[in-house]
């Protein structure tokens, strides 16, 4: 990430159908409702049905990522109605290596419509062009084929499985690791 990236205004990302804007504390109820949907958190290390306190802490952490220089989080809205449809994050930056890791959640009412692919492509451009990242990483859990396909449409390549990488929700989980670098093309 370039040093100037944090000093500039928050990168609002408009797309054909979406507006990706900064997360604020006003988004707690929307994010909590989204994370209360079992299908949304099934393949995630985010708590199922977070408490109000957990939701406030999650939103606080997301809203502070950009100013701290450690990442960036966006609310995904429908560009016309401004309806909340999801969240997209660079959860971390490793500045010396010009690398960052992403995560996202999308409301099931817009699944299968290319919404997350559109958001991912906007975030990829921002990651490479604005934040100066060479490499962007993501992980999915086995069985989450929809997320695998979204990443592949964003030019990510499956790089392997890290067996029993993490413990959450009462079990060890394998991580399917995906990565892309600046020179990788976006898939259509």
UniProtKB/TrEMBL annotation:
**Matching PROSITE patterns:** GNAT
InterPro entries cross-referenced by the UniProt entry: Acyl_CoA_acyltransferase, GNAT_dom, N-acetyltransferase
GO cellular component assignments: cytoplasm
Q: Which UniProt keywords apply?
A: Transferase
N-acetyltransferase domain boundaries: 29-179
| Tagged with keyword ATP-binding | no
One Pfam family this chain carries?
Acetyltransf_3
GO MF term list:
protein-N-terminal-alanine acetyltransferase activity
What PANTHER family does its record include?
A: GNAT FAMILY, PUTATIVE (AFU_ORTHOLOGUE AFUA_3G00765)-RELATED-RELATED (PTHR43792), RIBOSOMAL-PROTEIN-ALANINE ACETYLTRANSFERASE (PTHR43792:SF9)
Name under which the protein is recorded: N-acetyltransferase
This chain's source organism reads: Bradyrhizobium zhanjiangense
């Amino acid at each position: 990430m370039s040093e100037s990236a944090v000093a500039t205004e928050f990168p609002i990302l408009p797309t054909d159908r979406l507006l990706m804007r900064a997360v604020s504390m006003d988004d707690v109820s929307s994010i909590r409702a989204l994370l209360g949907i079992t299908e949304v958190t099934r393949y995630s290390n985010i708590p199922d049905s977070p408490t109000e306190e957990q939701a406030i802490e999650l939103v606080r952490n997301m809203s502070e990522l950009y100013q701290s220089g450690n990442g960036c989080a966006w609310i995904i809205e429908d560009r016309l109605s401004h309806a909340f449809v999801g969240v997209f994050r660079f959860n971390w930056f490793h500045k010396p290596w010009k690398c960052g890791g992403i995560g996202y959640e999308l409301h099931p009412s817009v699944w299968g419509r290319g919404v997350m692919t559109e958001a991912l492509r906007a975030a990829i451009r921002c990651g490479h062009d604005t934040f100066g990242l060479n490499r962007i990483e993501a992980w999915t859990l086995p069985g989450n084929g929809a997320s695998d396909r979204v990443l592949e449409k964003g030019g990510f390549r499956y790089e392997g499985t890290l067996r029993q990488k993490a413990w959450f929700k009462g079990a060890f989980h394998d991580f399917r690791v995906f990565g892309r670098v600046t020179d990788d093309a976006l898939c259509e």
